[in-house]
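Researcher: I'm preparing a figure for a lab meeting and need a structural model of a single chain. I don't have an experimental structure, so a prediction will have to do for now. The sequence is pasted below. Please return the structure as tokens so I can convert it later.
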Amino acid sequence: MNEQIVESATPSRSLGLRPIVVSGRLTAGSLLLAGLAWVVRAGWEVRLAMAGEPASGPPDQGDGVHRALNGLEDSYHLVTSIGGGAAFLCALLFLSWMWRVRDNARVLTGQPPKYAGIWVYLGWLVPIVNLWFPRGIVADAFRTTAPGRKLPVSVNVWWALWVIGMLGGVGIMYRDSTDKLIARAYTEVWPLLVSDAAVIGAAVAGAFAVRAVTAVQVERIRQEQPGVAAVSAAGAVEG
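Model: Understood. Here is the structure written out token by token.
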């Protein structure tokens, strides 16, 4: 009940803050869900490696020719599709959360964000800048909200592991087609598993990072708006 009060009452106040408690919890949960999806995916890649490549060769045989998939390969397609759905949900929730913490930091302190709003989206897509802009937006929101406080270790761990997974080609936005990933699992499964482990670690660390940044903003809201926000902010931090 208290959380409903802060989510509905706080944003309507003069500060114009955006609801953050539920958004933070949903985002952290979606990160863990995406991490679980990659655990399952890694398990299927191990199964493919153990089964070995069929005598007919890889699914993608070049020049636009694809052979019929066997049962294990077909199930890997299903696993990656489900994982893709979890990743898409995670991306939507994470972007929404980033917007909220960025805007709340600006409202709470009156300081303009270090990064323009368009980079909340393009920062993930534009080559080179996607190696640091998303982390920078999260770090800037934390440091602006809580000046003088040390950035949570989970933020740096999340981003380092994310970049490793992305550069390995099997991050959440992987480059290879599913058939090519199957071929890689047959011939070089260990690089795939290392990248999968990085993505899984990034998802777990990201969940902790989201909780930490959210908790700092809830604490700041409690300081700025004693009364309504104080009661529910305490529950949000403890939860």
